[in-house]
Amino acid sequence: MNQFIPNKIRIHLGRGVASALIVFAGILTVSGLMAQTQDNQTKEAPVGWPEMAPYYAAIRALYAALTRAGWDLNFRQRLIKSPDSAKEAVAEEGNIKIPASKVIVFYETQPPKPDATKSVSADDSGYTAVHLLSESKSNENIHVFYLPPFKKDDRTKNYKYKDYFMCCYQYWRQ
User: What residue ranges do the domains of the chain occupy?
Assistant: First the structure.
């Protein structure tokens, strides 16, 4: 009989601890699911690429991509890897859907040559931008940008798309 009471206590204690652990695991699971749901709700759905003026959503996405390219080397490499990689990087950074018909190209500028033409300008970083002549053909599906100077982890500088926009939709230059 004396062994019967300690066994009962041990069994009830074990069941109590097991029940408490199961309840605790359930609470953790529910709180994790709620946090995931809140994260999904706070992230906005990507906006569509504007097909006519105003082009603010596209301009903001390109602005964000150029600014990040100024300090994030991995992101910068994604931009210059290929047009598809650039389009994907801009879409993620700008939270925008970019249609398949759009081509986005980024390139790094070259140092100026001694016999550079008058259409070449240089900023204080030594980068050279070759501006296209105004008579160039316009194509709203092709967007070419040169990248801003790279300054690792310097997030203070913001880069505007119009300063780095090289080609090909003249309306965006206005």
Answer: 1-43, 47-173
